[in-house]
Known about the structure:
Helix content is about 35%, strand content about 25%. By secondary structure, the chain is α/β, with parallel strands linked by helices. It has an eight-stranded parallel β-sheet. A seven-stranded mixed β-sheet has the order 2-3-4-5-6-1-15.
Amino acid sequence: MALVLTESDVTRLLRMEEVIAAVEAAFAAHGEDRAQNRPRNRIPIPGLTLHVMAAALPPAGVLGLKAYTTGSAGARFVVLVWSSQTGALEAVVEADRLGQMRTGAASAVATKHMARPDARIVGCLGSGWQAQSQLEAVCAVRPLARILVFGRDAHRRQAFAEMMAQRLRVPVEAVPSALDAVRDAEILITATTASAPVLLGRWLRPGTHINAVGVNRADRRELDDEAVRRADRIVVDDRTQAAIECGDLLPLVASGELSWDRVSELGEVVSGRIPGRRGRDEITLFESQGLAIEDMAAAALLLARARAAGVGQEIPIGR
């Protein structure tokens, strides 16, 4: 019997700290060649695109895929989970909140391993759905003193700042420009839907860590060329996937200014193969495309919690 789990089940059962630990373990497995990830494939038709991504995460006992559609009506996500031991279908998961949490968790893992240990001020460009979990996750790995938020809509960014201050118990200030969010920040988050750069390299201070999470298409970007040039250390979640869709890096690769040999994977950092930071003044950059191994890690955790709590609807399929 496969277990059907809804968005409300995900919200009820998962806690960010546990998702971060699960995603960190998945990246360690990826860095040690104990997990396999397959890049996202997109199938566009007029007005709609189907996206499919798959992974095997044997240390968590699962393999599976995430499929979702995007169009004018928004995005709809589902994750399918099979047992890596028996091949039986274990779960069908509504996965909007799951995806939000695992994306935040990946940034938390990068922040843990790449940001300065004493970093306490966060600048966030973006005040939407993904920005919420980014701040929640970073708060779980650093005791923050202050968060500065910029979004294009003044009313929305103010409402976002008030909501997140109450949720995180950290001072959150809505600021009038991107530069105001960046100039004092020690950790930066870009979580936007921008098609052109919102973070400029000339604004960056030495020692800053950047989590760039809003771009997973080759024709979009959040960072300008100078921001990438100034990064002393560039880490992606997966080089193969980044080479297809990381719009922040691809222009410099195309021009010959950046080689993929200079770009590391987060799994290599987490597994200890390479350091995430070598010096206090290094500017470090994590480019997050979003991997299916992250979905599998979160889904395996969710499945275990659901079984323990007796949550979800069983359906006779996949056995």
